[in-house]
Amino acid sequence: MGRAPRIDLADLIYHVINRANNRHQIFHTPEDYQHFERLLEEAAQRTSMRILAYVLMPNHWHIVLQPKEDEGMATFMQWLTLTHTQQYHAKTQTIGHGHLYQGRYKSFLIEKDSYLLAAIKYVERNPVRAGLSKIVEDWRWGSGYRRLCGTQYEQKLLSESPIDLPENYSSWVNQADKEDELSQLRISVAKGTPFGGMEWTERMVNRFKLVLTTRGRGRPKKGT
Q1: Among candidates 120, 102, 111, 109, which has minimal Cα distance to 8?
Q2: Closest CA to 54 of 155, 152, 133, 131
Q3: Is the pLDDT confidence value at 209 over 80?
Q4: Any idea which of 32-36, 151-155, 181-185, 190-194 has the lowest mean pLDDT?
Q5: 13-177 sits in which CATH class?
Q6: Neighbouring residues of 137: CB distance < 8 A, sequence distance ≥ 6
Q7: Residue 7: pLDDT band by 50, 70, 90 thresholds?
Q8: SUPFAM superfamilies, per this entry (predicted)?
Q9: SS3 114
Q10: What's the first-to-final CA gap in the chain, in angstroms?
Q11: Is the model's pTM score more than 0.70?
Q12: What does DSSP assign to residue 133?
């Protein structure tokens, strides 16, 4: 069965996720996390990628991004994952021992309004939901920490949000996720379907010839 084509156009917003092969741990030490963040910074500079949010977890990561050019997401992701894989295998002396990642990354479109805020919050609260930290800013390896506690240099990795972020950011991001948003986001993560309101989703369906799933969301129609 062929793969569905990706939507990869400038100025749209995407949530991207990739996991380690067989969900094995890929980040073991602070140096492992720091190394990936340096690659994330270099990838963004090489491709003029706008990173709106991200979080690194022990065996996977999430990034919310907004390309400046068509096919920008593919270029960014190819360099990031290939470089990380090559350098990981070289460091751990596991060259030829199989794939680092489970396969190609997953991605889905996000609407530019409250849905984008929900996606940012979902990404930054991953460590809290996983029991790795009590509050968002305690997890060093993500945009929540950089936004709230990072140095001026560390904050440069994050691009300006296309919509206003909550003024009292720490209180907002540390509030529990809304169950309906969390459920919808988990569907999008699992199926790669757009995350947004019904009117916006219908526009995406018409624009990109998506096929609606039984959940009422869309996925790219094969062969288009």
Answers
A1: 109
A2: 155
A3: no
A4: 190-194
A5: alpha beta
A6: 144, 145, 148, 149, 170
A7: confident
A8: Transposase IS200-like
A9: helix
A10: 15
A11: yes
A12: -
Report the amino acid identity of residue 86. Q
Q: What are the pLDDT digits (tens) for 63-104?
A: 999 999 999 999 999 999 999 999 988 887 665 456 788 878
CA 217 – CA 184 distance, rounded (Å)? 10
Which residue reads 């994330």 in tokens?
Answer: 40
Tokens of 179: 């169950």
Predicted confidence (pLDDT) at residue 205 exceeds the cutoff of 80: no
Q: What are phi and psi of 7, to 5 degrees?
A: -90, 120
Q: Give the Cβ contact number of residue 9 at 10 Å.
A: 16
CA distance 44 to 35: 14
Amino acid at 19: R
- Helical residues (DSSP H) of the chain, grouped into ranges: 30-47, 72-92, 114-124, 126-129, 143-149, 152-155, 169-173, 179-191, 198-208
Q: Which of 62, 65, 54, 58 has the alpha carbon at shortest distance from 25?
A: 58
> Looking at residue 159, what DSSP letter applies?
P
Residue with tokens 């690194």: 56
What whole-number distance in Å separates Cα of residue 177 and Cα of residue 26? 27
